[in-house]
Every structure is written in structure tokens, then in C-alpha cells.
Write a structure and sequence with these properties.
384 residues; 17 helices; 45% helix; 15% strand; globular
Length: 384
């Protein structure tokens, strides 16, 4: 049995934690002693949520700092806090989720011989710069420290096979020290989702962020063209946004805005969302950072047998679409010709003239149990 410390800047209240972190830590805790250090915006609510963890897990919550200077000072101060925590609790393995947590281990690695799993979750510095959240100067400064962060880790976990090749070449990491583990899905929660949509109408679905690295304006561009081809459709958005937010994004609607329905849906009820849509549509920017991307929604779409319309060259999406044999739904240029082809394909799927077997073709790739087993095998490697 190992003592494992998991460090995350993703709040345990977030949907990403409910789908990715809690299931993993629950499995860890069956075989090992588990500690969680989590950075939280709402400490009181986070403390109440601890009951969602099945076994005994010891928690330490840190207060999230929004101010960039305070956040930087926190990274410096928490170096000592983390080192002290690791020594007192005799930690064997530290599993960090993304770049910020591993930056807390620089001091620890100098004084303590522990094993580190760096779960990168994407090329974070590049992602922040591409989204316009940091300046060019800040980006260049941070990139100076990126390679050392990879080097202090014993095992790297990345979301895509494409990014694994980049890490090998760019950071000179040996291939056997890099594991590809995509965002996973509990198929039991989604596999019995039955479509309840109108047989004569196409219902598009959208999940999550409208900004950041998502290019929502392309979704509207697609729907503006689609409306010229078929006016019998609707657009269901699962998000905290409202219609005023959509207008602030500067989109020009060439269709009746009543077609857009926005619902704030809790993660536990997402299966209901999937039952009400025929196809999910989203576009990400295809810059460098997206080579390491695997949106959480992907596995859920596979589990619920929901087709997706998206753009190529995002993580392993090209290979995933190839496995699904649905290249017609992968779109690079949004124009009338391409949208018309997709329109025909959607009705063929909806009318069952094309058998869509996503959950059969890719269950092995996204299944929660299979992917958590990969993490457990990494821990076993440290026993050798």
C-alpha cells in the first residue's frame, strides 16, 4: 500500500472533478492511503462535498487567489507547505493535475525522493497564451520553466497520442515514461440514454464554454447556413450562459433566436441532455495547445451514441472519427457545400439508414474503469 497525494487546482465542485477526479481517487483509496490537496474558490461548499468520496480520504483545501501576483506568491509559499505535508504524512507518490500543481513540487524534489505523476491535461502555458490570458512576455518567461517541470516528473500522463510524440521530441522524455489516458466516461451513467427528439426535426446540442479556446461563432456560422437548407431544427445549449451573453459575443443570427434554448444542467443530469439532442456541435481553435486536447464531452457522446460535428486536428479526433467511420461530420471549412453534405448525413443517421455504433467502436478507449486501471498500473510500477 502506498501513500498517495493528489494535488489539483480544479475545484472538487466542478463538473470536471465529478467525472474525472472523484472516480479516480475513490479507486485509489481502495488500495492505498489517499490525501487530496485541492484549491477551492468556495471552501465551505467544498468541505460539505467531501461526502461524495466513498472511502476515507484526507483533505486539505487551499484558498484560490484570483489576483495574479497573489497567485504567484502562493506558488512560492506553498512550496514549503507541500514539502512539510509530504514529510509529515510520509507520502510515496504525488499525482499532480496540470501545470500549477507541479510547480509546487520544485522544492520538494530537491529535498525528498518521491515519485511524481505529472498529469499534464494539455499544454497549459500555450493554452493560456493562445486564449489571450497572458502576454507574450509572460508566456516566454513561463516557457523557460516548462522543460524543468516535465523533467522532475517520473511519469507523464497526456490526453492524446499526438501530444505524446510532441513531448518525446520537445522535452526529451522517454516514450515508456509517457502514458496516454484520455478523459474517461462512466458508461453505466450514460449507456441507457434513449433519444426522445422529434423524428422530423434535427436538434443540435452544445455543452460548456462559449469563449476561451472554443470558437462559438463558427457554430453560429454553421447554423446560419444550415437554416437555409432546413428550417426544421433547434439548438439546445447546456451552459451557465444566457441569451444576453450570446449577444455580447457579437454573433449575427440569420434565424429565429427562439430556436436557441439554454439550460443550466448539473453534471448528474447530463444524460437527460444527451437524450434530447441528435448531434453535438462544437469547434475549437486548432493552434498548438489543442494537440493535447480531449474534451470531457467526447466520451459522453460516445457512451450515448450521439454523433458530433467538429473540426479536425484537435488531439486524437482525426483517428477517433476514422474509427467511427464518420469523416463526413468532421468539417474544416464551414461553407454551404460542406454543411449540405452534413445535413444529408444527419438525417440518414436519424432515420437509422446508417448504423451509428460509437459506444461499440470506442468504448475500450473512453471507458472509466479501463482508464483508471492504467493509473493503478502506474502505481504498481513504483513498487518494482
Amino acid at each position: 500500500m502506498k501513500s498517495i497525494l493528489y494535488i489539483s487546482y480544479d475545484s472538487i465542485l466542478d463538473a470536471i472533478s465529478k467525472s474525472q477526479i472523484i472516480p479516480l481517487l475513490n479507486k485509489y483509496s481502495y488500495e492505498h492511503k489517499v490525501y487530496l490537496i485541492s484549491v477551492e474558490k468556495n471552501l465551505d461548499e467544498a468541505k460539505k462535498y467531501k461526502k461524495k468520496f466513498k472511502n476515507k480520504i484526507q483533505f486539505k483545501f487551499l484558498k484560490y487567489k484570483k489576483n495574479k501576483l497573489l497567485k504567484f506568491l502562493d506558488v512560492l509559499a506553498n512550496q514549503f507547505l507541500i514539502l512539510k505535508f509530504i514529510i509529515i504524512n510520509k507520502i510515496d507518490v504525488v499525482h499532480v493535475r496540470s501545470y500549477m500543481p507541479i510547480s509546487l513540487l520544485i522544492l520538494t524534489k530537491l529535498f525528498k525522493n518521491i515519485k511524481i505523476i505529472f498529469d499534464i491535461r494539455g499544454f497549459w502555458f500555450d493554452e493560456k497564451y493562445e486564449a489571450g490570458h497572458i502576454s507574450r512576455e509572460a508566456y516566454n518567461f513561463l516557457k523557460f520553466f516548462e522543460k524543468p517541470l516535465f523533467k522532475i516528473a517520473d511519469i507523464i500522463v497526456t490526453l492524446s497520442a499526438v501530444s505524446k510524440k510532441i513531448i518525446i521530441k520537445k522535452f526529451n522524455i522517454k516514450a515508456h515514461n509517457i502514458y496516454v489516458i484520455p478523459t474517461f466516461t462512466n458508461f453505466t451513467n450514460f449507456i441507457n440514454t434513449n433519444k426522445t427528439t422529434n423524428k422530423k426535426k434535427i436538434t443540435f446540442g452544445y455543452i460548456g464554454n462559449l469563449r476561451m479556446n472554443y470558437e462559438f461563432y463558427k457554430v453560429i456560422k454553421f447554423l446560419n447556413i444550415y437554416n437555409q437548407i432546413n428550417k426544421n431544427w433547434s439548438f439546445l445549449i447546456a451552459s451557465n450562459y444566457n441569451k444576453k451573453d450570446l449577444k455580447l459575443l457579437g454573433n449575427k443570427y440569420l434565424f429565429d433566436e427562439k430556436k436557441i434554448i439554454i439550460k443550466n444542467i448539473k453534471y448528474e443530469n447530463m444524460h437527460n441532455f444527451y437524450s434530447n439532442i441528435d448531434v453535438c456541435i462544437y469547434f475549437l481553435n486548432s493552434r498548438f495547445s489543442k494537440k493535447a486536447s480531449c474534451p470531457t464531452k467526447l466520451g459522453e457522446l460516445i457512451a450515448t451514441n450521439t454523433p458530433l460535428i467538429t473540426n479536425p486536428n484537435i488531439g486524437d479526433i482525426n483517428q477517433i472519427i476514422k474509427t467511427l467511420k464518420l469523416k463526413n461530420l468532421l468539417i474544416n471549412k464551414i461553407n454551404h457545400s460542406n454543411v449540405k453534405k452534413i445535413s444529408k448525413h444527419l438525417f440518414l443517421i436519424k432515420n437509422k439508414k446508417i448504423k451509428y455504433k460509437a459506444r461499440l467502436n470506442l468504448r475500450y478507449f473512453f471507458d472509466e474503469n479501463k482508464n483508471i486501471e492504467k493509473y493503478l498500473n502506474i502505481i504498481k510500477i513504483f513498487n518494482k
